[in-house]
Specification:
heterodimer, A: 577 residues, Alpha-Beta Plaits, Rossmann fold, 5-stranded mixed sheet, B: Rossmann fold, Ubiquitin-like (UB roll), de novo design (two linked rop proteins), 3 domains, 17 helices
C-alpha cells in the first residue's frame, strides 16, 4: 500500500493512502473532536465539529470525511478552527435540554465531555430547545427528543446495522427531528427494541428505561427475598465502566458487588442457558425424529423474536418453543426454587441483569409468567448495574472474588458462550451430537460457528445424517436467512439468530462505548471462559441433572412444556407502506 | 448600451413545439457536426473559448467536460441543472421556454462528448408548466433519431429523462439534486465521493447548468472568435442575467461581459422606479453578496464584480431602493435560509436560527455589542464549516452588508 506524507500541526505524518485526516491525527495522538462520527458507521460529516484547517483551502475541511493527500498541511488548533469548534458546541448546547444533573447519561455524555474539554463554562446563545416530552411508552427504550443533537448515529445503527430504519430524519432546517414513521411510539413501528440506537447515541436522547429504583426498593424491603441472575455477556463487559480493559473477565468481582448490593442470592443465567440447551436440543432432536418445521430457529434473543413477529410473522413456527435462558431461569426461580427452599414465592423478587434492552420487553410478555405474576420481575441492563454499583460506592476493582450461589448458580462453558454469536449453536451441537449419536464428542470446539462474520454456516456429521446449520447476527443478516426461508430455498436444519452485532456481548444494554473492536475482545473472553471451565456441556451440569430428577422429569416433559416453552405469534403492523 | 444576441439568437425564431421548425433554422446541425468529431475535440473547443460554467461556481466548462470524459466508468450521466432556485434568478427559464430544442441538442452533444448514456433534466417544480414543451422536444428528437440507440448511425446511444423537483432550494446543490433524482430526500451529502466519479445512481455524472449547456451548440456552429470578442478580460462572451426588484423593466437580458452595472440598471432595466435612490444591490440571488450604489460603474465581469466585493453567482440582480432598509432586506433574506436549510449540519441548521433571532433583536433596537459579535462569528463559522454550499453562502449577504453598511450594525440603533 502506498504511503502519503503530510504534516499535522507541523508534525510530519506518514499514513497509508486513503487514510482520513481524523485517523492520521489519531496516529500522532491528536484527538480531533467529533460527535456524528462513529468508528463502526459510515461517515456522515454532519456535526462539523471535526473541521480543520488545510493550507491553501479557503474553507475548513471535515477531518472525518477528508482523505489525506501528499504534501497536505493540516492545522487542528488555529484560531479559526477553535472558533468553529466552540461555536458549533455553543449552537448545539443552545438546542439541547441541559438538565445534565438528572440525565441518565450524566458524566457519560459525549457532548458534556466536549464542552468540558473546550472549557465552555456558559452558553452565550439563548436556548432554542423545543419543548418535547420524554417518550416512555414501552418497557425498554426511552426517547428524549429535547436532548437530540441530530447527529444521525441512531438512524445509521437502525438502518445499516439492523436493516430496520425505524428511526429517520423528518422535516428540515431547524425543524429537523429524528423520529419514527408518523411519530408513532417506537414499539408501534418496525422497531424491535434492540437498543442499538441507545448504544450509539452520544447524549441522553435515547436511553434504556431505568429500573434501578425498583430494584433498590425491593432490596430495601425486608419482606422480600431478592434474587438476581446475570447473563454471560455482562461479566465480560462490566469492567469497561471501571477502567478495565475491554474483554476483562470480572465474574468474581461482579458476584461480590451484587452481594454487597444486598441481593439474597446471586445466580447465573448460564444455568438457565444450560437448561435452554436441554430443552431446545431435545426439541431439535424431536423434530428430526418426528418431523416438524425446518429449519428450526433459536428464540433466545428477544430483539430477534420481536423481529420475526413483526417482520416475518408467518414464519414463527420455525422458532424453537424453548424460552430464553433468562425466562427459563425465571420460571424455575418462581416454581422449583420456592419449593426447594420453602420461601413463599409471593415474596420472591427475581431480577435479571442483561446486556439487552429488549429483555425488559420479554420479561413483561404475558407468556413469561403464570397467574399474572411475571417470572422475571425486573430486568436491568449492564448500564443500570454499573449505576447501582457506583450508587452504593463500591470500589469495584478492589473487590475480592466470590462464587455464584447454589442451586441455580452453576453454569457450564456451553452456557457461557451463549453471549457470543454462534455460541448457542455450538452449545446445542455439543449436546445434540452426544444425545443423537450416543458417543462422546472428541473435539468440543466447533470453530466454524465462531467469529464475527455476519452469516456463518457449517455441516455437522451426526453419523447417519448430516445437520446443516447457519448462524446470523444483526437483523440485517437475519433478514437474508429469512428471505431464503420465505422463498422455500433454505438449505438449513438449524439456525441461530442474535439481533445484535456479535451477539449479546454487543447488546443494546451494554456499556456506552461498545464498538465492534470491543465486541471482538468480549467474544474472545467468553471462549476463554468456556475453555477454563471444568464442565463444557450443558447436559453434564449436575445442578441441571438434579433439577430434572427432582422437579421437571425429562426434557420436553409435560411440566417442562408448561414452564419452559411458549409460542410466538405474528404481530400486525399498524401501517404498511 | 444594448443587449447582444448569441445565446438568445433562437428566441422567437422557431416554433418551440416543432422540431421541423427548429431544423429549418439549422437545428441539430451542431449535433451532426459533433458526432463526426472526436469527443475530446468538443471539450477542447469549449476549453479554447475559456467559457466558465454559468451555474455560479465559475468552473471552467472545457475542463469539466474533459474531466468527465476521463473518468473511468460505465453508463455515465449528464445532468442539466434546471433547478434555478436562487431568488431573483429566472434566466434559465427563458432558455427552457424559448429554446427547448437547443437545450436538448446541447445535452446530447455533451453526452457524446463525455461518453454518457443518459441525460437528466432536473427542473424545479415551479417550472412544471414547461414540462410539456420539454417532453415534446424529447419525444420529437427521439422520433427523428437524435435520441435513442445508434444516434445518427454513429453507434452512440443516449436518452433524456425529465425529472421535476419538489420545491426545495437546496436541491440546486449537486449532491442534493442527485439524491432527489434517486428518489431520496433532497439533502446534500458529503464529498467525496465526488459527483464526477460517483453521482446519480452511483454512476459517473457531469452536472451542468442550463445556460452553460445551451451555449454548446452555438459554440460548435458559430464564430467562436465573435463570441470571445464579446467578453472582457477573463470574462469571455456574453451572459444571461435576470434583473429584479425596484426597477422599471425587470427581466432577462443577454449582455456582453463588461457592460456596467449602471448600464444594466438604467439602460436595460429602465432605471429605478420613480428615480428613487438605490439602497443596495444583491448579486447572484439569496446566497449572493450586496453592494451599495458605489458599484454602479463597475463592469459586469467575474473579476470586476469580485473587485467590488460581490459575485456574478447565479446571474440574478436584485435592486432595492431607498424605501427598504438594509435590515429589512437582511431579515427577508434570512427568513429564506431559515426555511431552506436542509437541517443536517449543525452550523447551518442552528446558525440560521440564531442569526434570525439576533437580526430580529437588531431590528427592535435591542441588540447588544455581544449579540452583534456573536452574529458575525456564527456567520463566519457557517461559511467556513457547513456541509454544503448552502450553509457556506447563506450569510454572504449579512457578512457583505456588515462591511458595506457598518452603521446598521450598532447596538441599540434602529438603522437604515
Amino acid at each position: 500500500m502506498s504511503l502519503v506524507h503530510l504534516t499535522i500541526n507541523n508534525i510530519p505524518v506518514e499514513v497509508p493512502k486513503g487514510t482520513k485526516i481524523m485517523q492520521a491525527a489519531q496516529s500522532i495522538g491528536i484527538d480531533i473532536p467529533h460527535l456524528c462520527y462513529h468508528e463502526d458507521q459510515r461517515i456522515k460529516a454532519h456535526c462539523r465539529l471535526c473541521s480543520v484547517e488545510v493550507t491553501g483551502r479557503k474553507r475548513l475541511l471535515a477531518a472525518c470525511s477528508t482523505e489525506v493527500w501528499e504534501g497536505m498541511e493540516v492545522h487542528t488548533d488555529t484560531a479559526v478552527v477553535r472558533d468553529a469548534q466552540v461555536t458549533i458546541l455553543q449552537l448545539m448546547l443552545a438546542n439541547h435540554h441541559k438538565d445534565c444533573l438528572s440525565c441518565p447519561r450524566n458524566q457519560n455524555c459525549d457532548l458534556q465531555r466536549l464542552c468540558s474539554r473546550f472549557n465552555i463554562m456558559e452558553s452565550h446563545l439563548p436556548s432554542v430547545v423545543k419543548e418535547a416530552e420524554r417518550i416512555a411508552t414501552n418497557p425498554a427504550i426511552v426517547r428524549d427528543p429535547a436532548k437530540c443533537i441530530r447527529c444521525g448515529r441512531c438512524i445509521r445503527a437502525c438502518k445499516d446495522v439492523q436493516g430496520i430504519a425505524a428511526l429517520t430524519y423528518a422535516h428540515r432546517s431547524s425543524d429537523i427531528t429524528v423520529t419514527t414513521a408518523f411519530d408513532k411510539p417506537m414499539e408501534k413501528t418496525d422497531c424491535v427494541l434492540c437498543g442499538q440506537c441507545s448504544l450509539v447515541c452520544p447524549t441522553g436522547a435515547i436511553v434504556e428505561k431505568d429500573d434501578t429504583d425498583a430494584v433498590l426498593d425491593a432490596l430495601q424491603n425486608p419482606g422480600k427475598h431478592v434474587i438476581v441472575q446475570v447473563a454471560p455477556a455482562v461479566r465480560v463487559a462490566l469492567g469497561d465502566a471501571f477502567g478495565l480493559e475491554p474483554g476483562d473477565i470480572v465474574t468474581g468481582q461482579m458476584v461480590t458487588a451484587l452481594k454487597l448490593l444486598g441481593f439474597d442470592k446471586v445466580f447465573d443465567t448460564n444455568f438457565g442457558a444450560d437448561l435452554t440447551i436441554m430443552e431446545e436440543g431435545s426439541e431439535f432432536l424431536h423434530r428430526l425424529e418426528h418431523g416438524g418445521t425446518f429449519p428450526m430457529i433459536t428464540s433466545c434473543s428477544p430483539g430477534w423474536v420481536n423481529y420475526i413477529e413483526k417482520h416475518f410473522g408467518d414464519f414463527t413456527a420455525h422458532l424453537s418453543t424453548a424460552k430464553s435462558p433468562m425466562s427459563m431461569f425465571g420460571a424455575v426461580a418462581k416454581t422449583y426454587y420456592p419449593e426447594k427452599t420453602g420461601i413463599d414465592k409471593q415474596n420472591i423478587v427475581t431480577v435479571a441483569v442483561m446486556p439487552c434492552t429488549a429483555k425488559k420487553f420479554e420479561a413483561a410478555r404475558p407468556e413469561m409468567g403464570r397467574d399474572g405474576i411475571p417470572d422475571v420481575d425486573i430486568v436491568l441492563t449492564t448500564r443500570e448495574l454499573i449505576k447501582l454499583i457506583k450508587y452504593v460506592g463500591i470500589s469495584f476493582n478492589n473487590l475480592p472474588e466470590s462464587d455464584f450461589d447454589s442451586p441455580l448458580g452453576l453454569g457450564t462453558g456451553a452456557g457461557a458462550i451463549f453471549g457470543a454469536t454462534g455460541g448457542v449453536m455450538e452449545a446445542a451441537l455439543r449436546t445434540v451430537y452426544e444425545k443423537y449419536t450416543g458417543k462422546t464428542l472428541e473435539r468440543l470446539d466447533f470453530t466454524a460457528v465462531r467469529g464475527f462474520e455476519g452469516i456463518k454456516e457449517t455441516t455437522v456429521d451426526l453419523g447417519d445424517r448430516d445437520v446443516r446449520v447457519a448462524i446470523a447476527h444483526t437483523l440485517k443478516n437475519a433478514r437474508k436467512l429469512m428471505e431464503e426461508i420465505q422463498r422455500g430455498a433454505s438449505p438449513y436444519d438449524f439456525i441461530e439468530i442474535m439481533a445484535c452485532p456479535g451477539g449479546c456481548i454487543g447488546g443494546g444494554g451494554q456499556p456506552i462505548g461498545t464498538t465492534n473492536a470491543v465486541r471482538q475482545k468480549r467474544m474472545a473472553a467468553l471462549y476463554e471462559l468456556d475453555k477454563s471451565l471444568p464442565l463444557r456441556k450443558s447436559h453434564e451440569n449436575p445442578d441441571i441433572i438434579t433439577l430434572y430428577k427432582e422437579f421437571l422429569g425429562e426434557p420436553l416433559s409435560e411440566k417442562a412444556h408448561e414452564l419452559l416453552h411458549t409460542h410466538y405469534h405474528k404481530v400486525a403492523k399498524e401501517y404498511e407502506f | 448600451m444594448s443587449t447582444v444576441k448569441f445565446l438568445t439568437q433562437n428566441f422567437g425564431a422557431y416554433d418551440v413545439n416543432s422540431i421541423g421548425s427548429y431544423m429549418k433554422i439549422g437545428g441539430f446541425n451542431a449535433l451532426r457536426k459533433a458526432v463526426n468529431m472526436e469527443p475530446s475535440a468538443i471539450s477542447d473547443l469549449i476549453a479554447a473559448v475559456k467559457v466558465k460554467g454559468r451555474g455560479g461556481a465559475e468552473y471552467d466548462m472545457g475542463r469539466k467536460l474533459s474531466q468527465a470524459r476521463a473518468v473511468v466508468g460505465e453508463n455515465k450521466i449528464v445532468i442539466c441543472n434546471a433547478d434555478e432556485g436562487e431568488t431573483t434568478t429566472f434566466k434559465d427559464r427563458e432558455l427552457i421556454k424559448n429554446d427547448p430544442f437547443n437545450l436538448i441538442e446541447a445535452l446530447i452533444i455533451v453526452g457524446y462528448a463525455v461518453g454518457a448514456t443518459d441525460g437528466y433534466i432536473y427542473m424545479r417544480s415551479e417550472y412544471a408548466c414547461y414540462r410539456p414543451v420539454i417532453l415534446n422536444a424529447i419525444r420529437q428528437a427521439k422520433s427523428y433519431g437524435f435520441l435513442g440507440e445508434n444516434i445518427l448511425g454513429k453507434g452512440f446511444d443516449f436518452n433524456i429523462h425529465l425529472y421535476s423537483g419538489a420545491g426545495a432550494y437546496v436541491c440546486g446543490e449537486g449532491t442534493a439534486l442527485i439524491r432527489s433524482i434517486e428518489g431520496k430526500a433532497g439533502r446534500p451529502r458529503m464529498k467525496p465521493p465526488f459527483i464526477k466519479q460517483s453521482g446519480a445512481f452511483a454512476r459517473p455524472t457531469c452536472l451542468c447548468n442550463v445556460e452553460s449547456l445551451s451555449l454548446v451548440p452555438h459554440l460548435l456552429m458559430d464564430d467562436q472568435e465573435f463570441y470571445a470578442r464579446l467578453g472582457s478580460g477573463d470574462s469571455i462572451g456574453s451572459k444571461l442575467i435576470s434583473v429584479a426588484g425596484n426597477v422599471n423593466r425587470p427581466g432577462v437580458f443577454e449582455i456582453a461581459f463588461g457592460t456596467t452595472v449602471r448600464e444594466i440598471i438604467y439602460d436595460l432595466a429602465g432605471g429605478v422606479q420613480k428615480n428613487r435612490a438605490i439602497r443596495l444591490i444583491q448579486f447572484g440571488g439569496a446566497s449572493g453578496k450586496v453592494a451599495d450604489a458605489s458599484v454602479l460603474d463597475t463592469p459586469y465581469t467575474y473579476e470586476g464584480l469580485r473587485g467590488a466585493g460581490v459575485m456574478v453567482g447565479s446571474g440574478g440582480m436584485l435592486i432595492i431602493d431607498e424605501r427598504t432598509s438594509v435590515l429589512d432586506f437582511l431579515l427577508m433574506n434570512q427568513e429564506f435560509f431559515s426555511e431552506e436549510s436542509c437541517g443536517q449540519c449543525t452550523p447551518c441548521r442552528e446558525g440560521n436560527l440564531h442569526i434570525k433571532i439576533i437580526l430580529d433583536k437588531l431590528a427592535e433596537g435591542k441588540a447588544t455589542d455581544e449579540d452583534i459579535r456573536q452574529m458575525k462569528k456564527i456567520a463566519q463559522v457557517m461559511s467556513v464549516s457547513s456541509l454544503c454550499g448552502l450553509g457556506e453562502t447563506a450569510q454572504n449577504s449579512l457578512l457583505s452588508a456588515m462591511k458595506v453598511f457598518p452603521s446598521v450594525f450598532q447596538p441599540g440603533g434602529k438603522n437604515k
